[in-house]
């Protein structure tokens, strides 16, 4: 509802206000500034925690469609899947130790022998995040507890050459990997295009990491995963791909731009299960491969990592309109960051500016120019990764976007 053309809104006061308010679009809430009691009643329908059990309604939803409000989820919490079966992270299987230790050994082979020995002595070696090696500087190992200096000896060219010899060729985005593993090696180059630094990130397939949002996966809607770098977006969608392919028996195709989801090499990592993987020759061709996947391979679900350009966002929108389920990631802290990103606005339906007449703006007590959603979002729901152990779930992305634009969105308490 872009504007109210009439001068009056008729409300049947004999009916319950609670039920009447749900038939009003979000953009009309500011218009109904009849009394503070009425406005607070409407606004309260957009706020809830899991304990209160209330719900919100989207401006575009039908009168019979109830939707839960955003909620915080943690692995220690219990949730019910779509069929009412409760599940808990306590019952989630984890990656087997022999397999995990073997892949960690493959990663540590990148380092010179002395650095490798020092790392093996660290008590948090099993939770190693990444190793940073910059020419002429001390090597750093990053753990959940913080950075740790591996050696007092600065990195030499020989150390970098040793690491480079253990990985495949670097692509246009300066990323490479180790064959049959999920590890990612990123290079820093000088002006002569010579490698003078490496960021070596440990990749892990964590079985059961998607249990916390199993209900969203089983519902069949498209899922947008939002979070800052290093919070576990790729790990999550890798497990979603396996869950969809192995447990729900769907035809899943992964568009793997940097080989992060399916690992390096032509044979994909076992962590994606029966899902198929399409590699992208060039980082700028991701949107073309996304469309190619739909047209050539009859997928029921497309998995995309790091949607970052307008062309990729448009390709995702095109895929969604063809009835294919989408699971994708985007960098950002919250949905509001996606709304403010011109390249990614199409993921949330696009944003447009609407100009109101003087009289209508006065009645609404708002500025003459307001922001509204252009159309339906590409994704049905969204998951904001707050940390590796906490996420915020938005069951209906359109409702959240409408509430943010109307200025009445209240995030759930931690």
UniProtKB/TrEMBL annotation:
Question: What range(s) does the AAA+ ATPase domain occupy?
Answer: 219-350
Q: Cross-referenced SUPFAM superfamilies, in alphabetical order?
A: P-loop containing nucleoside triphosphate hydrolases
One Gene Ontology term of the molecular function aspect: ATP binding
Q: Which Pfam families match?
A: Spore_III_AA
Q: Where is the composition biased (Low complexity)?
A: 59-70
Query: Which CDD domains does the record associate with it?
Result: AAA (cd00009)
Q: Which SMART domains match?
A: AAA
Q: State if Flavoprotein is listed as a keyword.
A: no
Q: Which InterPro entries does this one have?
A: AAA+_ATPase, P-loop_NTPase, Spore_III_AA_AAA+_ATPase
Question: What are the protein's UniProt keywords?
Answer: ATP-binding, Nucleotide-binding
Top-level taxon in the UniProt lineage: Eukaryota
Q: Which residues form a coiled coil?
A: none
Return the annotated region ranges for Disordered. Answer: 59-99
| Bias type Polar residues, positions | 78-99
Q: Indicate what this protein is called per its UniProt record.
A: AAA+ ATPase domain-containing protein
What organism is this sequence from?
Arachis hypogaea (Peanut)
């Amino acid at each position: 509802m872009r504007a109210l053309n009439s001068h009056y809104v008729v409300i049947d006061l004999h009916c319950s206000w609670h039920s009447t308010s749900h038939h009003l679009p979000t953009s009309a809430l500011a218009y109904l500034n009849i009394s503070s009691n009425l406005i607070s009643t409407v606004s309260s329908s957009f706020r809830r925690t899991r304990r209160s059990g209330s719900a919100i309604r989207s401006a575009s939803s039908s009168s019979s469609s109830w939707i839960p409000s955003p909620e915080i989820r943690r692995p220690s919490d219990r949730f019910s899947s779509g069929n009412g079966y409760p599940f808990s992270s306590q019952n989630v299987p984890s990656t087997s130790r022999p397999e995990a230790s073997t892949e960690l050994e493959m990663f540590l082979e990148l380092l010179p022998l002395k650095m490798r020995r020092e790392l093996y002595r660290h008590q948090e070696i099993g939770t190693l995040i990444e190793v940073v090696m910059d020419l002429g500087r001390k090597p750093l190992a990053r753990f959940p507890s913080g950075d740790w200096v591996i050696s007092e000896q600065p990195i030499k060219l020989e150390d970098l050459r040793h690491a480079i010899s253990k990985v495949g060729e670097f692509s246009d985005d300066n990323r490479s990997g180790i064959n049959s593993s999920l590890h990612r090696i990123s290079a820093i180059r000088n002006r002569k295009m010579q490698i003078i630094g490496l960021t070596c990130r440990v990749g892990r397939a964590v079985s059961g990491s998607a249990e916390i949002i199993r209900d969203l996966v089983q519902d069949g809607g498209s899922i947008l995963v939002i979070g800052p770098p290093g919070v576990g977006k790729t790990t999550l969608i890798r497990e979603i791909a396996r869950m969809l392919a192995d447990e729900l028996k769907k035809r899943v195709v992964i568009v793997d731009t940097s080989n992060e989801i399916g690992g390096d090499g032509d044979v994909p990592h076992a962590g994606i299960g029966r899902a198929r993987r399409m590699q992208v020759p060039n980082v700028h061709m991701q949107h073309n491969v996304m469309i190619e996947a739909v047209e050539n391979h009859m997928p029921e679900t497309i998995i995309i990592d790091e949607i970052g350009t307008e062309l990729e966002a448009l390709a995702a929108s095109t895929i969604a309109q063809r009835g294919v389920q989408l699971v994708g990631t985007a960098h950002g802290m919250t949905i509001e960051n996606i709304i403010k990103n011109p390249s990614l606005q199409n993921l949330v339906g696009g944003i447009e500016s609407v100009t109101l007449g003087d009289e209508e703006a006065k009645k609404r007590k708002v500025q003459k120019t307001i922001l509204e959603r252009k159309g339906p979002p590409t994704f049905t729901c969204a998951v904001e990764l707050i940390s590796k152990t906490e996420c915020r779930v938005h069951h209906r992305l359109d409702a959240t976007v409408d509430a943010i634009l109307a200025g009445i969105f209240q995030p759930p308490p931690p």
